[in-house]
Design goal:
By secondary structure, the protein is α/β, with parallel strands linked by helices. It has three domains: 240 residues, Metallo-dependent phosphatases (Purple Acid Phosphatase, chain A, domain 2); 68 residues, no CATH class; 55 residues. 31% of the residues lie in helices and 24% in strands. The radius of gyration is 26 Å and the shape is elongated. The mean pLDDT is 89.
Length: 373
Amino acid sequence: MVRFLHSSDLHLGKRFGNFPEDLRGRLREARHGVLGRLAAAARREGASAILLAGDSFDTETPAESVLRQALAEMGQHADLSWVILPGNHDSLQADQLWDGVQGAAPANVTLALTNTPIRLGEQAIVLPAPCTTRRPGRDLTEWMDGAASAEGVLRVGLAHGPIQTFSEDGVAGDVIAPDRARRAGLDYLALGDWHGQIAVNERTHYSGSPEPDRFKHERPGQALLVSVAGPGAVPEVRSLDIGQFSWRTLTLDLLAGEDGEEALRGLLPSQARRQTMIRIVLQGRTGLAARSRLVAAIKDIAPEFAHLELEDAALATQSEADDLDRIDYAGALRVAADGLLAESVDAAKSEQEREIAAAALVRLFSYCEEVGP
């Protein structure tokens, strides 16, 4: 039995520049902590090696501290073998990066920098396909078809890139052949690039990122435990939870008259809020007052989460006379409110103009609610 962990897309050193400084630090530290969590999972599951299928570093020029601290952490787990493949974010074009890694790598870290088989214990070899550039534009796994191996030795492919017209960076193209494992006689093909886990077929898998970094993928940070009984055997592949932060998109679809605050309470997670990144998407229809209360409730609960953002453009707002009375019974504000309401339902105006008027009415109502009578 050969057993190893398959991971990818650690993106060590990612800056997270669109978040507050304190949260940026926590997110970067969580990414570094992935290394220790992968090592702990490998020991717990009886795996002797960890294969990193590209994008271990977020850029081709990571800070020296990011590089050296990552290698030092791997070296602390000397009982485990680490195999690091260059991906599209840290491709072979980054001479300075890989020269630095080679100079500082501990004995238990192997760099997959060429199309050369790498021994994985006595029973398996790894056939790597390092990314030569950010977008090679060709299938770098083709060489695996003709790579020789001794009889009875497991063949494990290691590659990074898009397959079947999708990629994490949104560049479509059939780059890696989806049946490469069959063509090359691979017992398993470990892929990186897509940050969510995908089983292409029973022998070809994307591990997904062990620490999510966006709302694009709804799965938690995971790695794959791969166990192969022998050459030709179908691998047993199992997901292991690795991530520290959870990134969740929650959609609240409201009906007119529905209690949005109660619906919100039923939607929000009750556990580990400090480690949860939330995006709330409001849609459907509600009244002005109900909308104002709901948005206020969301703003009130936001500090309990690591991060909370609100998308409410798709939430239509119904305005009643009582709502406008809460703005003002007369005077300039009431005149403005009446005008905005009329524009928001004026069929002679474009959809964009109606949406702008409706949004302005919501803002006016919210402002009046905040300042009071």
